[in-house]
Write a structure and sequence with these properties.
Layout (H helix, E strand, L loop, with lengths): L8 H13 L16 H12 L4 E5 L2 H11 L7 E5 L5 H7 L4 E5 L9 H7 L4 E4 L11 H11 L2 E5 L7 E2 L2 E2 L6 E5 L12 E5 L2 H10 L27 H11 L2 H20 L5 E2 L6 E2 L4 E5 L3 H13 L5 E2 L13 H4 L9 H6 L9 H9 E5 L6 H17 L2
Parallel strand pairs: 2-3, 2-4, 4-5, 5-8
Antiparallel strand pairs: 1-9, 6-7, 6-11, 8-9, 10-12, 12-14, 13-14
Helix pairs in contact: 1-8, 2-8, 3-4, 3-7, 9-14
Bound molecules: pyridoxal-5'-phosphate (PLP).
Length: 397
């Protein structure tokens, strides 16, 4: 990860196809486009590769989450359960609809703890949104049965785990809705972009219309379309879809490359008794985009993180002190620093963040180091890196 490490003639060819006839819009202009429908083509290929009936491309992964929630009818005052460890996009996408993010502890999978999810359900809860962080996944069987028992929608955010599977099924295809990001740093990139995946016809129709101003996409003459409901513009462009199309065709190659590099580093670190690896739920196969491990305590992890940096081991993260991915440093959310007024309902709904502590999440994130696996490393570079990492951890006590 990320896909941009290996840009090639394949991406260039798809982009040139679009530029040659000049139609950068994904809908309409049928006569001008010489049969090029890159967004449509990418949706078809996402459907077949990720084994889902419908894929709707949108402008970002954050938009994908908002569109997915809106498609399921979730909005003002509704509660959505999400993990404490994710990217800020998760609560942004929920709050954009006037809904309330309910943050819940993670366990040693580094994703939602199903037991803590059960405790967080109220009469306002409408959805559970596990985020498959750093290439692995949540316990989807457990979350799915909680959703069934409580009549809740299951929305998977697999932005960081495209290419991973759970019990033989691609992540993103298992919940009622799945979301992907195709932003610049993801395993397959379109520059910017995202996708909503679903097997539900109604949710798909909602996502299709809602992400394009509520247009119903009936007929060829765009001006004649009607609007069954209100929408916004979360469209992807043909240029972005063209890059994404070439990248999706290389997803298996990318995952295979990551697996080789991941395995070399994991084997080197397995020799160290202080290192423990994250739990991957039974039946899960990672996308190998990150290697995550736990050290004995916070101080140990901070020392390792610093020493990695001092010794040019790049792209390893200690998320405990990081303001992008973990609740501890999301001060702008806790203080509700909004440019515009926020409803009383949402303010009240988020008041718990003033006092609530997340000791269980702290326990895991404090000790966790997460290392990005690059595809562009040579085998020699990976072996050197693995040995250097092991050496550094061994010298810290
Ligand atoms: C990247 C990411 C997103 C948001 O994607 P954008 O395309 O950058 O908007 C959402 N969730 C997770 C877990 C991500 O890593």
């Amino acid at each position: 990860m990320p896909g941009f490490e290996l840009f090639s003639d394949l991406e260039r060819k798809e982009v040139n196809d679009v530029l040659e006839n000049g139609v950068l819009m994904r809908y309409g202009f049928d006569g001008m486009r010489n049969g090029h429908w890159k967004a449509r083509e990418l949706e078809k290929e996402l459907e077949s590769q990720l084994q889902v009936k419908h894929a709707q491309l949108v402008s970002s992964g954050t938009a994908a989450v908002s569109v997915a929630l809106a498609s399921a009818g979730i909005g003002s005052g509704d509660e959505v359960i999400m993990p404490t460890f994710t990217f800020v996009a998760s609560f942004e996408a929920i709050m954009m609809l006037g809904a309330i993010p309910v943050l819940v502890d993670i366990d040693d999978t580094l994703t939602l703890d199903p037991e803590k999810v059960k405790e967080a359900i109220t009469s306002k809860t409408k959805a559970i949104m596990p985020v498959h962080m750093c290439g692995s996944m949540a316990n989807l069987d457990a979350l799915q049965s909680i959703c069934k028992a409580n009549n809740l929608v299951l929305i998977e955010d697999s932005s960081q785990a495209t290419g991973a599977t759970y019990k033989g099924k691609p992540l993103g295809s298992i919940g009622d809705l799945g979301c992907l990001s195709l932003d610049f740093v993801k395993i397959i990139t379109a520059g910017e972009g995202g996708a909503v995946l679903t097997n539900n016809e109604k949710f798909y129709r909602h996502a299709d219309h809602y992400s394009d101003h509520g247009h119903d996409h009936v007929g060829n003459d765009r001006g004649a379309e009607s609007h069954p409901f209100l929408g916004y513009n979360f469209r992807i462009s043909e240029l972005h879809a063209a890059v994404g199309l070439a990248q999706l065709r290389r997803l298996n190659e990318f995952v295979a490359k990551q697996k080789i590099h991941y395995t070399i580093i994991k084997e080197a670190l397995s020799q160290i008794p202080e290192v423990k690896f994250r739990t991957v739920p039974e039946g899960g196969v990672e996308s190998y985009s990150f290697l995550n491990f736990f050290l004995p305590d916070l101080e140990f992890a901070r020392k390792v993180s610093k020493s990695f940096k001092d010794n040019s081991i790049d792209a390893c993260f200690h998320y405990y002190d990081n303001s992008w991915h973990y609740i501890r440093e999301w001060q702008h959310l806790k203080d509700l620093k909004s440019l515009y007024p926020i409803s009383k309902e949402v303010k009240n709904g988020l008041a718990y963040l003033q006092t609530k502590t997340f000791e269980q999440s702290d326990k895991y994130i404090a000790r966790n180091i997460s290392c990005l696996i690059k595809m562009s490393w040579t085998e020699e570079e990976v072996i050197n890196r693995a040995n250097k990492m092991a050496q550094i951890i061994k010298t810290i006590n």
